[in-house]
Amino acid sequence: MASDALAQSSTLTQEPIVPYIISFKTSIDYHLVSKFEGKILQEYQNIPAVVVEISESNVLNLKNSSSQVEFIEPDLKINVVSDVNSLPEPHLMSKVTSQPLILSESTSTQTIPWGIEKVNALEVQKKGFTGKNIKIGIIDSGVDYTHDDLYVTGGISFVKGSPDYMDDFGHGTAVAGIIGAKNNSIGVVGAAPDSQLFAIKVLDSKGDGYVSDVVSGIDWSIKSNMNIVNLSLTTTTDSKTLKKAVKEAYRKGVLLISAAGNIGFNEGDTITYPAAYKEVIAVGAINSRNERTFYSSSGKDLELMAPGASIYSTSPNDQYSMNLGTSMASPHVTGVAAQIWEATPHLKNKDIREILDNTATKMGEKASYGYGLIDALNALNYTKK
After folding, report:
1. Which of 16, 234, 270, 335 is the S-S candidate for 179 at Cβ 3.0 to 4.6 Å?
2. Cβ distance 231 to 281 under 8 Å?
3. N-term to C-term CA, the chain
4. What is the pTM of this model?
């Protein structure tokens, strides 16, 4: 009986085993992880880091036992950028749209979304630049690859229990439509309709995920030679692992574009991560009246503005929906970047970024409007100088 009580007491006081990300300075030390009873869940090819299930005491012991450990941090949660369904005070939405907030319907004739016109993507399409041969990774909730208005070249899922990259939340499909909906006789048209779309699923059916999976998506994008990745997701916590991943992706030639965040109604610098990292283009949102939306995050790292209110785009099951938020602004910049990169395939990611910044239409102070509104036609003309 005494031994049974002792065993029960031991079970009750046993330390919880939770996921941590361990980053090494040069290479992964598998022996060290094993020595401290860590179970590796994920490892990365482009950064020397692993996701490990391990007890808190063993984390501390591991960290103090080797000079090769760069840092250890818990695996943080990350979400889609707050949109129409989760912004505070929904009655304020009337300030940015007079249309129904959620409009889902099949469209038998093609509609030109106002945002695609606003950024002059159509004018550049008329000149023959539609994003051909540009590979775009949509790191999001997946994409509905059966949608009649989308062509998805491929993809991968990092969501546990969801091996398929089919979108079961809807966010990634909306992002995909803004970037690359086909130029056909139905639905909508994207900024770069001939670009190659890759669905990289890191968010679940509720729009939630983990930094470790986003890093896996970035890691896969590097390995798969993506030209551009769109990151319409956010965390308010700075992750050293996420920062390390975007830095490596940028160094290896990937152009990273992210939603600035939808907490602009708060005071101070409200740019969220990964948009706040210097390697990433942070995109804020305007409405059709060229006004910065009240929710669009602002701060020193804001880089460009794009349409992000009353954005009509693709949604799962061959439907279309009205969306808003900086998560919808970011893919406008991604699509335009694809157009310009097609026109100038010899350029590097840093060059494309510089062109987009230099040719944006100035709108106001940098912290609120970045360099201004993205303009595809100005950017294309700039490349011909």
Report:
1. 335
2. no
3. 87
4. 0.92
Write out the two tokens for 281.
Answer: 């283009």
Q: What span, in angstroms and rounded, lies between the C-alpha atoms of 281 and 336?
A: 13
User: Which among 75, 83, 140, 301 is annotated as catalytic?
Assistant: 140
* DSSP tally for the chain: helices H, then strands E: 12, 16
Q: Choosing from 23, 82, 149, 171, which is the catalytic residue?
A: 171
Q: Six-digit token pair at 227?
A: 């030209």
User: Out of 141, 298, 313, 327, which one is annotated catalytic?
Assistant: 327
- 327 is a catalytic site residue: yes
Are 136 and 228 within 8 A, CB to CB?
A: yes
Sheet with 208-210: list strands edge to edge.
208-210, 77-80, 233-234
CA 343 to chain centre: 24
Query: 50: which strand partners?
Result: 22, 43
How far apart CA 310 and CA 287 sit, in angstroms, is: 8
Burial-class residue 240 by CB neighbours within 10 Å (0-12, 13-18, 19+): middle
Q: Judging by beta carbons within 10 Å of its beta carbon (0-12, 13-18, 19+), is residue 130 exposed, middle or buried?
A: buried
Cβ proximity of 197 and 151 under 8 Å: yes
What type of residue is 194?
Answer: D
Q: Is 140 a catalytic residue?
A: yes
Which pLDDT band holds residue 7 (cuts at 50, 70, 90)? Answer: very low
Q: Which two tokens stand for residue 275?
A: 């948009």
Of 69-83, 152-166, 273-287, the poorest mean pLDDT is in 69-83
What sign for the dihedral angle of Cα 157, 75, 263, 339? Answer: negative
